Amino acid sequence: MAYFTPIQKAPSLALPRMEMAVSKSHNSVFYPLDFHRYAADGDYLSWSAKRDAKLVPIRFFPADSAHQVAKVWKKIAPSIVSLLDNHNVAFDAIDCACRRQSCADLTTDLSNDDHTVVITVRTLPEITPHLVKILDKIHDITGGLAVEVRQGRVSTLSLPQVGASFGDFRNEKANGTIGGFFNLLKKNGDIFAQCALVSDHVVRPYVTINAEEMPRPAAENMQPYYHRTKQIKKLKPIYCTSPSQPRRWKMISNYRKAMVQLAAELIVCKTSSTDRLSKDELQELEKKKSAMQRASTRDINKGWMIGPLFAASGYRLSPHRRRLDWALVEISQGFPSKRVNKVENSNPQYSHRHTRQILHADKPLSNVGVYKQGATTATTTGVINPLRSYVTSYDADGNRTVTAEWCVIPDEEYECFAQSGDSGALVLARDSADAVGIIFAGHLDGGPAYFTSMQAVTSDIEEITGLYIQFPGVHCNV
Q1: pLDDT value at position 1?
Q2: Is the confidence at residue 395, as pLDDT, over 90?
Q3: What is residue 457's three-state secondary structure?
Q4: How far does CA 13 lie from the centroid of its chain?
Q5: 10: which DSSP letter?
Q6: CB neighbours of 114 closer than 8 A, spacing ≥ 6?
Q7: Secondary structure tally for the chain: helices H, strands E
Q8: Residue 465: helix, strand or coil by DSSP?
Q9: 8 Å CB contact between 437 and 426
Q10: Which residues, in sequence order, are bridge partners of residue 437?
C-alpha cells in the first residue's frame, strides 16, 4: 500500500525531528504526529512544544482531487465508519480534507501533504492504547494519511428576499433561510402554485432530547408532507413568516441598545460644561434620534406572513442515499408580488453588476467555487470538497444513519460557510449563480457545511407533488 508522506517541514521554518506519537492540541487528538504546533507572537512565527502556547488556529482547506486518496476514498470511508462503530466511537461527521494552520507563511510555503481524515466528536476521548490502535488502523487503510479527532458539533443550521430569515408562526425558536422562489407547474405548463424553498427541519422543527445529542425529527414529521393528501387536510395548517421571531427580537434588541446609547449622548451633551455642543449640533443629534425611532418602528412592524406549508420531504434519503431536507411554503396574496431570485454577484468578471439572478439549477462539481446568501452569515464563499463527507443523523426513534454528503470548505477569509439560521440557503456556483444545492447542516464551531444537490431536491419535489418545478422566468435544467 502506498504511503502518503505527512507534513515533515515548512521550507521557511525549521521543524524539530519527531517520533511517531499521539498528541493533543487545538481541542484535537492527532496521529501519528502533531504538525500544528506553530505559535505566533506578533509577526514572529515559531515552533512551540509548550502546552500553554497560543497556537495559530487550524483551518479546513479543500482536498486535492488528484491526490491518491481521492481514488479510493469512496471505498475506504465506509470501512472507517464501521471501524468506529465497532469500537463504539460516536461521531458527528468524517471529513477528508486538508488541515493547516491559518498563517500566510505556512499556507503559501508548505508543499508537503496535509490531507487529513478529520473525525468530529462531541467529547474528546482520552489518549489510550485502544484509541491509538483505532487511529493507527485508519492511518493504515488510508495509505498513511494523518488522522485528527476534533471536538465539535455538527447540527442542522436552522424583507422577503433570497437569503432572508423565516420561521414558523407558532414557534418562537424556528429560524432558517429562504433559499429562493419557485413556480410549480401542471403538466400543461400552467402555474399551480408559487412557493418559497426552505428547510423542512425549520418549518417542522427537530426536537432535542438532551444537550449532548443531535436534534431529531418528531415522529409525526418523519414522512413527507403534501397539503392535498387526506391525512394532511385534517391537520391544522403550518404558517410561516418572514422575518423569523428570533430575528425580529434581535432587531428590537439592537434598536433598543442604539437608542439608549444615543439618549445617553444627548444627556451628556446637554448637561456637561466641558462637552457642550452647539445648537446646530444638538439639533442634528435630535434628528438622528427621530430618524432612528422611525426606522425601528418601521422595521419592527414590517413583516409578512409568507403562507402555509405546501409540501415537505420528511426525514428521508434520496435514491442515492443523500439526506433530503426541503420544504415548500406556498406564497399568500399578502406577500410582496415581486419574487425575483436576486443574489449578490460573486463573479469578478461581472464586477460592474452588484446583483445577479438565479435562473438555472445545475449539478454540483468537485473543486468548483461556490457561495451562498444566508440569514445569519450573509454572503460567504467556499469550494466544493472533491471527497464526500460522512455525516451522522438520527430518526425519531434515535436510530442512526450515516450518509455521504456534498461538503463545502469555506474560503480562508471566512471562519465558516454557514451557521445556525442558514439552513435552506442555496449553494450557488460563483461563475454562473446557478443553484447546485441546498444547505441542511454544518459545524457549529466553524468549518465545513453540508448540502443536498438540487437534482435530488427537484426530483423528490416532483415525485411527491406530481408537479414540475421552475425558477421564475426560466425552466430548471436539472
Answers
A1: 32
A2: yes
A3: helix
A4: 35
A5: B
A6: 6, 7, 35, 61, 98, 99, 100, 146
A7: 8, 30
A8: helix
A9: yes
A10: 453
Residue-wise pLDDT for 406-418, tens only, equals 999 999 999 999 9
Contact 459, 343 (CB under 8 A): no
Q: Is 3 helix (H, G, I), strand (E, B) or coil?
A: coil
Q: pLDDT digit string (tens) for 182-235?
A: 999 999 989 899 898 999 998 888 888 776 778 899 999 999 999 877 666 667
Phi, psi of 83 (to 5 degrees): -60, -45
Q: How many CB atoms lie within 10 A of CB 350?
A: 13
Dmax over Cα atoms in the chain, in whole Å?
Answer: 82
Q: What is the reported pLDDT for 137?
A: 96
- Name the residue among 98, 149, 147 with its Cα closest to residue 120: 149
By the 8 A CB rule, do 251 and 299 touch?
Answer: yes
At 33, list the grid cell: 504526529
Cis amide bond preceding 6, omega within 30: no
Helix (H) or strand (E) holding 294: helix 279-301
Query: Which position has the grid cell 419535489?
Result: 461
Mean pLDDT score, 19-48:
75
Average pLDDT over residues 105-122: 74
**Angle (deg, nearest 10), helices 279-301 and 245-271:** 170
H-helix segments, 272-352:
279-301
Distances (CA, A) of 156 to 325, 378, 416, 452: 10, 17, 14, 13
- Residues 6+ positions from 67 with CB-CB distance below 8 Å: 4, 113, 115
Q: Is residue 174 within 8 Å of 32, Cβ to Cβ? A: no
Pairing of strands 176-177, 165-168: antiparallel
pLDDT for position 296: 65
Q: How many CA atoms lie within 13 A of 304 on its CB side?
A: 21
CA angle 380-370-468, nearest 5°?
A: 110
Q: Does the pLDDT value for residue 3 go beyond 90?
A: no
Cα distance between residue 105 and residue 14, in whole Å: 13
Instruction: Tell me how long the chain is.
Output: 478
Distance CA 33, CA 8 (A): 9
The mean-pLDDT minimum among 74-78, 196-200, 283-287, 452-456 falls in 283-287
Where does the pLDDT of residue 97 fall: very low under 50, low under 70, confident under 90, or very high at 90 and above?
very high
Whole-number Å distance between alpha carbons of 325 and 217 = 11
Residue 349 cell numbers, joined: 468578471
Contacts of 342 (CB under 8 A, 6+ apart): 161, 162, 355, 356, 357, 358
